[in-house]
Design a protein that fits this description.
Layout lengths: L1 E8 L5 E8 L2 H10 L3 E7 L15 H16 L4 H11 L3 H15 L4 H6 L7 H13 L2 H57 L7 H15 L1 H19 L2 H13 L3 H22 L4 H10 L4 H15 L5 H7 L4 H13 L2 H58 L1
Antiparallel strand pairs: 1-2, 1-3
Length: 402
């Protein structure tokens, strides 16, 4: 435990200062926030405390374990404050530990559990908070938490599948770029020097082209890096605009081979999220708004929000989803059946189960397809450079033989 000096403003607008003991500056801030202070400045007593943290510091696995354990404890009849205290003390993640202590303090001061969670949006997103609120109102918090734990577990699995499909080609491209750069900077200039020492022998056209590429790379490498950096920065800046983000997301969905896999992942996430929300008693308009915010794709978000608007006007959900041409026909038809039978949540969960299996097969097939394609690409490029450099040697060997 360390001592931290703090300054802050109370709810009444009064300036206060003092000293508090905590493990980190973040923990001190959480405790002060729970006491109703704002506009705080916290620093380690006797010096400056630099506490740099990227993101929330809480992994989906931490959240999933916490949710499952909390559901079990509440189902066993333990008071919520005691559950939070136990889980905070046993958490190995210091950041999550501080967050849970802040939530516990807020609940002790009279806030509802969902309101206490809402103070930590980087850890507990809108989906999580709204489901907990529905569980509190309906008196089924343990059931809701179990559903949340299953949802988080499946979401983590989907994210992992997508990453595994992208890591392999990214790794191959990185290795290919490194090998090509070494050949252009080191290997080809060595061969060129050797050819010059051989006299005025006429080099094959392929060799001349490769030597020219090597010269261009050596003389203009800084320009090439600047262009690459400019393209990356330009894409990132464009994606921050509404039109740029929509264009980029639409292109992703239309990429051959990769696009259909992304669509399946999006459908699985949407149906799982919406099914979980509806099964937990969240109104459909609120549920669709949350699904739109968590869609992860601007085109899909627009389609969901358009469906929400039509439902608010008294229309069904299947028709606007079909008009968007984002969701597969089978999904739209099953949603329509769910609306007619009144079993929308169960139908959505079945769709999610089906598409998660489809994602498994698609990712496996994508990986199997990408592997030989990337290896062939690497072989053609590197092999072409090597052959171009050895052509004069083969020519010289043939001349000497004759």
């Amino acid at each position: 435990m360390a001592k931290f000096q703090w300054e802050g403003t109370t709810r009444a607008g009064e300036k206060r200062r003092g000293v508090i003991e905590a493990d980190t500056a973040g923990a001190a801030e959480e405790r002060l926030k729970s006491d109703g202070l704002s506009n705080m400045r916290v620093r380690r007593e006797g010096g400056f405390n630099v506490n740099i943290q990227i993101g929330s510091g809480v992994t989906p696995k931490d959240l999933q374990i916490f949710t499952r354990q909390l559901a079990t404890m509440i189902d066993a009849g333990l008071p919520l404050v005691q559950c939070l205290d136990i889980l905070a003390n046993q958490s190995e993640n210091k950041s999550f530990q501080n967050v849970l202590r802040g939530v516990k303090n807020s609940v002790e001061q009279g806030a509802t559990f969902s309101d206490a969670l809402r103070k930590h949006p980087k850890v507990f997103d809108e989906l999580y908070v709204n489901l907990v609120a529905a569980g509190e109102v309906g008196g089924i918090l343990d059931t809701i938490l179990n559903r949340l734990a299953i949802y988080i577990e499946k979401a983590v699995k989907l994210r992992g599948q997508l990453k595994s499909a992208m890591y392999y080609p990214a790794g191959i491209m990185f290795v290919a770029a490194g090998v090509i750069a070494v050949m252009l900077l080191k290997v080809i200039p060595t061969f060129e020097k050797m050819f010059r020492d051989m006299g005025n022998a006429k080099l094959p056209q392929a060799t001349l082209v490769v030597v020219g590429i090597s010269h261009g790379f050596i003389n203009n490498w800084y320009l090439i890096l600047a262009i690459i950096a400019g393209v990356v920065i330009g894409i990132n800046l464009a994606r921050r605009t509404a039109q740029g983000r929509e264009l980029f997301d639409r292109m992703l969905l239309n990429i051959p081979i990769v696009g259909p896999t992304l669509r399946k992942i999006i459908v699985a996430r949407f149906t799982r999220t919406l099914g979980t929300l509806l099964a937990s008693g969240v109104p459909i308009l609120d549920a669709l708004e949350i699904c739109g915010k968590t869609a992860g794709n601007k085109v899909v978000q627009q389609a969901i929000m358009r469906a929400r608007e039509k439902i608010s006007e008294g229309h069904d959900m299947a028709t606007p989803l079909a008009e968007s041409k984002v969701f597969p026909t089978m999904v739209v038809q099953m949603i329509g059946v769910g609306e007619q039978t009144g079993a929308m949540d169960a139908m959505l969960q079945k769709i999610a189960d089906f598409y998660e299996e489809e994602v498994d097969a698609a990712v496996t097939g994508l990986t199997s397809l990408i592997e030989p394609v990337m290896m062939a690409f690497l072989g053609v490029v590197v092999g072409g450079l090597i052959i171009a450099m050895y052509l004069p040697i083969f020519k010289l060997a043939g001349t000497v033989g004759n």
